[in-house]
Design goal:
Elements (H helix, E strand, L loop, with lengths): L9 H20 L12 E8 L11 H7 L3 E7 L4 E7 L13 H17 L4 E8 L1 E10 L1 H13 L11 H11 L5 E6 L8 H10 L1 E8 L11 E5 L6 E5 L3 H25 L2 E6 L4 H16 L1
Parallel strand pairs: 3-4, 3-6, 6-7, 7-10
Antiparallel strand pairs: 1-2, 4-5, 8-9
Helix pairs in contact: 1-3, 1-8, 3-4, 5-6, 6-7
Length: 299
């Protein structure tokens, strides 16, 4: 499904995804794209005491502390959703094969979700992280907005070197910039300097946040291909490694698994649902799988 995004226009990309992805999603989701999200597009209405089964993300901790019993916030549903895409475009997202880079999956996921949302009268915007918060696309509706967002996304430079990714400052910037309660997609591989977890948690207290974690299978399971040069995508640091060495491959795999465990725990503590998105995934299946998981959580 994935093709190089640099050789085609935003219009052609959107047409291809409309035909190959969105039509299939319509059939599998039966037109109910809202099964993907809940708790979105809402305004504060009232407080009530916590009841078993309530979403703990809606606990008002200030009121809970004063009343000495848990209270949750209730909201009025809005017909219109405002969605924001927080896009990590730092060098590590360019990892992958020529046809299947993490950046390619990011572009296609954003295009599909933006199209699904705007065709139902909602607004979408984006903040793009390169070397600092590089570019913002204000939230608007309509098909032209999807094309504008896609065009701006494709124009963002591929950074060869950059200071190590700082997601904390990115999340802090989004928290200060996005005023109205919104649906927020954080799309990143989460290869970052530490310290971003609390900022993500604060963002999730104000907005409905979904973390889309990009990855490539080769980042966790190193193939046996002999002596290779490995390069840190963020810093450019290089080293020779012998992939014939079973002990080295085992250490590499164990380190990757620990990072997976640590990331999953961080998302749970932040109160954020995570959608894994591999460079080898079928985008339709990945989205439908996530929608079904969200439905199970609500039951």
């Amino acid at each position: 499904m994935n093709t190089s995004t640099s050789a085609v226009t935003p219009e052609r990309i959107l047409l291809r995804l409309d035909w190959n992805v969105i039509r299939r999603l319509d059939g599998l989701l039966q037109g109910d794209y809202r099964t993907l999200f809940y708790g979105f597009g809402v305004d504060f209405a009232d407080l009530r005491e916590y009841q078993p089964g309530d979403d703990i993300r809606y606990i008002d901790w200030n009121v809970t502390a004063r009343m000495d019993t848990p209270y949750v916030r209730q909201y009025h549903e809005d017909r219109e959703i405002t969605a924001w895409f927080l896009l990590d475009l730092t060098p590590s997202v360019d990892f992958g094969t020529v046809q299947n880079q993490k950046r390619t999956m990011l572009v296609e996921f954003v295009t599909v979700l933006a199209r699904l949302l705007t065709r139902h009268g909602n607004r979408v915007g984006a903040m793009m992280l390169g070397n600092g918060i590089q570019h913002t696309v204000p939230a608007r509706g309509g098909r032209l907005q999807v094309l504008r967002l896609l065009n701006d996304l494709l124009k963002q430079p591929r950074l060869k070197r950059a200071p190590f990714t700082n997601l904390k400052s990115f999340f802090d910037g989004a928290l200060n910039s996005i005023k109205r309660r919104s649906l927020v997609f954080v799309i990143s591989d989460f290869i970052s300097a530490p310290g971003w977890e609390r900022s993500l948690s604060l963002l999730a207290q104000r907005h409905e946040v979904i973390a889309v974690r990009l990855f490539d299978p080769r980042e966790t399971d190193l193939p046996d291909v002999g002596m290779v040069v490995m390069e840190d995508a963020e810093t450019g640091e290089q080293m020779f490694v012998d992939t014939h060495d079973k002990k080295f491959r085992k250490r590499f795999f164990d380190g990757a698994q620990k990072r997976e465990t640590d990331l999953s725990a961080a998302f749970r503590r932040a109160g954020v649902d995570m959608m894994p998105l591999s460079t080898e995934d079928d985008l339709v299946r990945a989205i439908v799988r996530f929608a079904k998981q969200r439905q199970q959580i609500r039951k």
